[in-house]
Structures are given as structure tokens and as C-alpha cells.
Design goal:
The protein is α/β, with parallel strands linked by helices. The protein has 15 helices and 24 strands. It folds into 2 domains: 274 residues, Aldehyde Dehydrogenase, Chain A, domain 1, CATH 3.40.605.10; 180 residues, Aldehyde Dehydrogenase, Chain A, domain 2, CATH 3.40.309.10. 39% of the residues lie in helices and 22% in strands. The N and C termini lie far apart (60 Å).
Length: 487
């Protein structure tokens, strides 16, 4: 088995198929965005490996299905406990792999991965039910039947946590899984596979294929042995997946990009508003939910800008393994170039950069400064397209209708933030915003019982609570007549 050590832990660079490690002829070099440290040559899967994984998952499906919610729940509870026992190890591995803050991984992200697994296991056992109802004396009985093999394709910005957001409900529903993590961040997916073995998960129930989207991803999404496809990533990739899934009419769910507004009303507490605005630089701006369009009422715009720049200028950028660091690097040189390209083109178009606007020359490497672009043209690419980096744009408005028109004038609809000192005023705005999640005077408060997903091109479907099982299961209604029984 090919492996290497990270944080003193052996991590396999091979696929995980039917409980075994499988290599590939081709490999992809994986390096840390922190300092370019070599992290291993990972296997690049294609049709052959995908066939092996899907076949293994289909073979394992009947027995996993027949375990029932409680039997599956016992294994998933052990898996959640193993994640909790390995929080620091997982955090160190993932920080090396994607450059996010180590302290955030230890205190929030990795515990959330365990919580995802445990929540959906318990939900399947205790909450996945619908009271029978009658139709002309006949009893209607709703159930959620396992659907088969779920293909899960996950992003690099929070690799393990976002994977478990899919793995948890899929396995709890009784599906078996083939996971394809992002090619830039394979480490925790590989380590997680070993945890499933320790938890006693049967062979073939959980499989991991490493590889590129155009190879492994394409083979997986068009495979006739797949029953469900769940993808988190970009709109262009989602379109390719949708076309591939269409041939087999495979149900899909997408959580895609965002260009969310953060609306500061004239009655807002500016200290709160600027604090929330600075939080949009979280994870070096590599968060799909971020309110990257700051829409500020004209009457408070000057004061807001001064206070925002004062706070944002204090952000400590550097090695994410250091406790005091508040912002780490971008994920990859290609991604850094993409971010820099947006800003450079905005400068050429005459946009005013009042904060940052370039890579951090003191740190070098993949570190890009927190940036604020002031009043770009509302039709410009920097104001309309997802950058997925530490770049915010600010525009002003003079009344609520203008704020709403500007907020909704986008092809996305993932999230929004509203800051207001008056409950009724905030309610008026939220009622008319098009977004899957809206935060009022707060940001990033998430509950697994709540629906999560995007409107417009930000996605298809909803995750959370029973909404997740509505996707990963076949929802069935059994209608029983009141008579005709012989006993």
C-alpha cells in the first residue's frame, strides 16, 4: 500500500474500494498551500476504478439496506465517536491540505463533521416518520426506502465537513456511497476511509475514488449503477454533471456558487455591521455563503467604510497553524491567479481599490490580501461573478426598493445577510429577498434541522433534517384498504 506520513500519521494515497486500497497507473502531486510542502502522489482514477467502486457499492447495498436505521445507526455512532477521538489529527491533516485555520478545524470544523454523522443517524432512527392518514377509510403510510448507490462529489474549501454533510444522510438512509473528493484536498477523505473500517462498516458500503473531475468525476456521474448524485461546487461543473445524469435520469442535488448580498440598513448598528462584514473574509474568502456584495445605505456609507477598513486592516494573515493567524493562504496557484485576475481587470476598468488589491508581498506564496473594491459598476464581472477569494465589493443605496433590486439582481440565490436595528424593517427586507438562507444581524448560524440550499443558479434541492432523506431515499406511500382481510 502506497502511503506517506502527515502529522505522524500514515495516509494512503490509493483509492479505497470494497475495503481495500487500489492504486492507479497515473498519479497527481499534492502539495500544501501553506508553503508548497509535498504531501504525496495520489492515485488518479478513471473508468476502471469507478466501475470497481460502483460495483462494490451495489453488491454491498442489500445487506446495508437490510440492517435498518438502528443497525446502521450503531455503526455510524461508532464512526462519529472515532472522528471525535481524532479531531486534532484530522485538523492537522486538513490544515496542511487546504490551508484553513488549524484552530477553526480543531474547535469547529472537525467536531461538526462528527455531529453531521451522528445527527443524520439519529434522525433516521427517531425522526424519519410520517403519521398515517386516511383517505375514505384507507390508510396512507409514508416510508423512506434506501435508493441504492450515492455518488458524492465534494469541494476543497471544507473537505471533510462538507463530505460528511452528504455521507451522513446517504449512509443513514441506507444507501451505499462512492465519494470523489476534490483533487486538491484528498487527505482527510483517505484518513476517514480508515475510520470507517475501525467503526465496523461492511466492505463496499463506503468507497473513495481520487481523481480529476473530467476523468473520475465524469465516469462516476454517467455510470448507470448510480442511483443518486450529490455535488457541491461550481455552476459550469454542475451543468456537465446534469447532462451526464440526464442519460440515466439519475436524481441530482446541487449546492453551487453564490454572490450573496450583505445589506446594511440605515438603522443598523455599525459596529455590528462592520464586524459581520469583516467576517466575510473567513477562510480567506473561500466560502460559498459569504456576503461578498456589501450594500450599504448612503446615509451611513462613509462611517461604515472607515470602520470597516479599520477592522479589516487588523486581520493577521499568515501560517494557519499559528494560533494568532486570522487568514491563511488560497488553496492553489491556479485559484490565486483567478482571484488576482478579477481584481486586475477591475482596476483596468477604473474601479477604486480602498483595501488590499494584490497578493501579500511580505508572505509571498499563495497569500492574497483582504480586498475591498469600492462602487464597481453593478454590471461588471467583479460585482456579478463568484470570485471565491478575499475580495468584497461595496455599493450604496438610498431606499429599500433600490437595495432589494440590487440584492436580487444576480443569477445566484444562496444566502444573504441583513443588518438592521428595527425588527419590522428587517422583516420587510427578508420577505422579498431571493435566497436559500438569510441571516439577520448574524452570520453562519447553522442548524442541521433546517433546510439548506440555494435558489436560482445556486443549487437544486435542500439538505438538512428530513429534506436530506427525501433525496437520498425513495419516498413511498403504501395505501391499505380497511377490509378484505381473512384473519
Amino acid at each position: 500500500m502506497k502511503s506517506f506520513q502527515v502529522a505522524g500519521i500514515d495516509i494512503s494515497t490509493c483509492h479505497f474500494i470494497n475495503g481495500e486500497r487500489i492504486s492507479s497507473e497515473q498519479t497527481l502531486k499534492n502539495t500544501s498551500p501553506i508553503d508548497g510542502q509535498f504531501l504525496g502522489d495520489f492515485a488518479l482514477g478513471d473508468t476502471k476504478e469507478v466501475d470497481l467502486a460502483v460495483n462494490a457499492a451495489n453488491a454491498a447495498f442489500p445487506a446495508w439496506r437490510d440492517l435498518g436505521p438502528h443497525g446502521r445507526g450503531e455503526i455510524l455512532e461508532r464512526l462519529a465517536k472515532l472522528i471525535e477521538d481524532n479531531v486534532e489529527t484530522l485538523a492537522q491533516i486538513e490544515t496542511l491540505d487546504n490551508g484553513a485555520l488549524l484552530r477553526s478545524h480543531i474547535r469547529g470544523v472537525m467536531p461538526r463533521a462528527a455531529a453531521n454523522i451522528r445527527f443524520f443517524a439519529e434522525w433516521a432512527s427517531n425522526n424519519l416518520k410520517h403519521e398515517p392518514f386516511e383517505t375514505r377509510g384507507h390508510s396512507n403510510n409514508v416510508s423512506w426506502d434506501p435508493s441504492g448507490v450515492a455518488a458524492l462529489i465534494t469541494p476543497w474549501n471544507a473537505p471533510l465537513m462538507l463530505a460528511t454533510w452528504k455521507i451522513g444522510p446517504a449512509l443513514a438512509a441506507g444507501d451505499t456511497v462512492v465519494l470523489k473528493p476534490a483533487e486538491w484536498t484528498p487527505l482527510t477523505a483517505s484518513f476517514f476511509a480508515d475510520l470507517t473500517v475501525k467503526a465496523g462498516m461492511p466492505k463496499g458500503v463506503f468507497n473513495v475514488i481520487f481523481g480529476l473531475g473530467e476523468q473520475a468525476g465524469a465516469a462516476l456521474t454517467k455510470h448507470p449503477g448510480i442511483s443518486r448524485i450529490s455535488f457541491t461546487g461550481s455552476v459550469p461543473t454542475a451543468k456537465k454533471i446534469a447532462r451526464a445524469a440526464a442519460d440515466n435520469l439519475t436524481p441530482i442535488t446541487f449546492e453551487l456558487g453564490g454572490k450573496s448580498p450583505l445589506i446594511v440598513l440605515e438603522d443598523a448598528d455599525l459596529d455590528l455591521a462592520t464586524t459581520l462584514a469583516v467576517e466575510q473574509y473567513d477562510n480567506a474568502g473561500q466560502v460559498c455563503l459569504s456576503g461578498t456584495r456589501l450594500l450599504v445605505h448612503q446615509s451611513v456609507a462613509d462611517d461604515f467604510t472607515k470602520l470597516f477598513i479599520k477592522k479589516a486592516s487588523l486581520i493577521k494573515q499568515g501560517d494557519p497553524r499559528v494560533e494568532e493567524t486570522q487568514m491563511g493562504p488560497q488553496i492553489h496557484k491556479d485559484h490565486l491567479s483567478k482571484i488576482a485576475g478579477f481584481v486586475e481587470r477591475a482596476k483596468e476598468e477604473g474601479a477604486e481599490i480602498v483595501l488590499g488589491g494584490a497578493p501579500n508581498e511580505h508572505l509571498g506564496g499563495l497569500y492574497y490580501q483582504p480586498t475591498l473594491v469600492m462602487k464597481p459598476d453593478t454590471k461588471s464581472e467583479i460585482f456579478r461573478e463568484e470570485i471565491f477569494g478575499p475580495v468584497l465589493c461595496m455599493q450604496t443605496f438610498t431606499n429599500d426598493d433600490q437595495a432589494l433590486n440590487m440584492a436580487n439582481d444576480t443569477e445566484f440565490g444562496l444566502a444573504a445577510v441583513v443588518v438592521s436595528g428595527k425588527r419590522e424593517h428587517a422583516a420587510k427586507i427578508t420577505k422579498n429577498l431571493v435566497a436559500g438562507t438569510i441571516w439577520v444581524n448574524c452570520f453562519f448560524i447553522r442548524d442541521l434541522r433546517a433546510p439548506f440550499g440555494g435558489s436560482k443558479k445556486s443549487g437544486i434541492g435542500r439538505d438538512g433534517g428530513t429534506w436530506s432523506f427525501d433525496f437520498y431515499a425513495d419516498v413511498k406511500n403504501t395505501v391499505i384498504a380497511p377490509n378484505g382481510w381473512k384473519e
